[in-house]
Amino acid sequence: MNDINIMQDLVCGAFSLNIALSPVQLEQFKTYLDDLLDWNRRINLTAITDYRETQLKHFVDSLSVTKAFHKPLPYACRFIDVGAGGGFPGLPLKIAFPQIQLTLLEATNKKCDFLRHITQRLSLTGVDVLCARSEEAALMSEYREQFDIVLARGLAKMAALSELTLPFCKVGGMLIAQKKEPVADELKAAAQAVTLLGGQIAQVIPITLSELNDNRCLVIVEKITRTPSPYPRRNGVPAKNPLG
User: Fold this and answer.
1) Cα(41)–Cα(193) distance, integer angstroms
2) Could you tell me the pLDDT band of residue 5, with boundaries at 50, 70 and 90?
């Protein structure tokens, strides 16, 4: 059975998102899937270990971020995936859109080892693996307010998530947070934090795919002013004591 048939769930999900994957890209996704599940036997990268579920709940879910793209991505658009874990959603987006520049931010050394391994294994260029906490990385001049698009998946509630992510986003850029409905109360609780950090909640985009029918959505935050210099606060404080 060839890779196209093996990866049929990914092919169908990507098609639903108007993304056509080439045979080379499908081969990359297949290698990614195999290595993810192999490494997962030694380090905790994912609770999902089924072939089909991985294609849908990791790969298609990651590609669903494209619902927030209202126009073609500019060449060398800079993305940062905060709390990248096993590489989601950043790496599937990089495979599908090789022109983007991607930083994978992850605090756990063993997960960073996997991210470096899979980036090399897939021959991906324009990918930087940064092993650090977001509270520390966001204070570094080479990362602070340098990114067009900031990605966050399963990172934290919106109030804490905003402090961990918006400092990376340049003015005019956007944060895309992958969430599940209902999110109204969470957004209400985060409104003060988002404003303080220079953001504005723009919209919530429902993910209406037959392949993903569990109330997933994208929370879009536009960066409208610079983040004040005291933020983010020191390690662990955003999660323990969210703004607002």
Assistant:
1) 39
2) confident
Q: Is-contact 227 168, C-beta < 8 A?
A: no
The beta strands (E) that lie in the chain are given as: 78-82, 101-106, 127-131, 147-153, 169-180, 199-206, 216-223
Residue position matching structure tokens 């988002």:
194
pTM: 0.95
3-state secondary structure of 219: strand
Question: Beta partners for 187?
Answer: none
Per the structure block, which two tokens stand in for 175? Answer: 């944060």
**Adjacent-strand bridge partners of 151:** 81, 176
pLDDT of residue 1: 46
Strand-pairing partners, residue 103, are 80, 128
The mean per-residue pLDDT over the stretch 13-22 comes to: 95
Give the whole-angstrom CA distance, residue 113 versus residue 105: 12
Residue 4's pLDDT is what? 63
Residues 6+ apart with CB under 8 A from 96: 14, 19, 21, 25, 63, 66
